[in-house]
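Checklist before submission:
- one chain only
- standard amino acids only
- sequence pasted in full

Submission:
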Amino acid sequence: MTTTIPLTPAALSPEDVVAVARHGAHVSISAESAAAMRESRQVIDDLAHDTRPHYGVSTGFGALATKQIPSELRAQLQRSLIRSHAASSGAEVDREIVRGLMLNRLHTMATGRTGVRPEVAEAYAAVLNAGITPVVGEYGSLGCSGDLAPLSHCALAVMGEGKVRTANGELVDAADALAAAGITPVVLAEKEGLALINGTDGMLGMLLLAASDLHRLVSTADLAAAMSVEGLLGTDSVFAEDLHALRPQPGQLASAANMRAVLTGSPLIQAQKDGAHAFTRVQDAYSLRCAPQVHGAVRATLDHAESVAGYELASAVDNPVVTTDGRVESNGNFHGAPVGYVLDFLAIATADLASISERRTDRFLDKARSHGLNAFLADDPGVDSGHMIAQYTQAGIVSELKRLANPASVDSIPSSAMQEDHVSMGWAAGLKLRRSVDGLTRVLAIELLTSARALDMRDGGLASSQSSPVITAVRAAIREVVEGPGTDRYLAPEIEAVRRLVDDGTLLAAANSAAASPLI
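Returned file contents:
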């Protein structure tokens, strides 16, 4: 049964946005929102007959705001705005980006602060519920005055123009898709075109989707790091709770707790504390010993980014906006700087999380540092190459993630005849963060694949596992899709198989099934 999320003037939750954007949940317009929209619409209707110019109601837009538009041309003004601003180019962005974009704009309408009629909001809800997705190119938003081009493509589709994809992915004319779904195209009235394109909706949606992914990935990174510590015969003593209490960074404490939970009950770790295999190294390398500190900093960055997203979800971003006391005021709330900054900040954190993962993987492959494993984890080094090139793949991804960590938000470029002379580039920051998150997923998958192979080579495989219960469960999940060590095989499908296990949460679920309490 499809979930339906009611839209009210109150803030959406991040989970609501992910449910609609990624999982196809439906939406409905509450009676409270419909009443608020009717009230603010009356304010706009009253201004439409005023002899004084009002931006977006009776004037042009941007640098053309000084031109007064006669009443008989104002419907054309709104159509022309949407048509001219639907100017994106490049590859289509993902369906979930467009759905998140539309939902966030629809929620701003539902606050009753935009002056949009309820029937416009109902049309947006109907398009979302029908699974119709306007086609939006990757280029076109500067992240200021709203995600103008992407939002314009959505408004164009609701007008019955442009191209869309149906629920099954077929590319069709918007008019045909609306007709098939029984949706009447909208004819925009004063200000409505402007209200449909003046928001940070696309970059906000990408931030929320990335945050959802990164929660899973940072816990997966804790799991991977712990498996690497075990596989490299390291020590868990540096993850002791009292040591981390001396530097009570919340993210660090959480990651250290995860790593302790994963390593609890490990015979391989216990063997480093006593007997013939007692731990003799003074300290493990930073990539092992400092994993909680680095992973914890990623968690802190994610917390900060989500606090910004929370404020944005509670916002009614439009220009001009209808205030609660009935004024219509121009403002700059559409500027994407707050969201753009944290999108860039997360790209930095993502790159570093991948970088430390690659360093752990590399230690397994170097005979001088792997503590008794074959060179490159090869079955017969020289004849076989083992995971040599898997690490090359990691290195290539990490190198790209470092380039993607270069912030978009510092690269303002002026537009609209210098009226819009400082922009956020938040849309671009969101797109590159999505690529970064994908790269991190692949890097962690290779570390997990490599550590599972190393552990099999240490103890002979699952039947004689010397891993902790949690790591044994994760190794078993990996062995469901990838064979154990042997002579060289076609490696790319194995990397992809484990990437899917990371992406869909299977490996975290396997860990949690064996852990005393779920990983944080």
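Reviewer check: The beta strands are 4-7, 26-29, 89-92, 133-134, 137-139, 163-165, 171-173, 321-322, 328-329.
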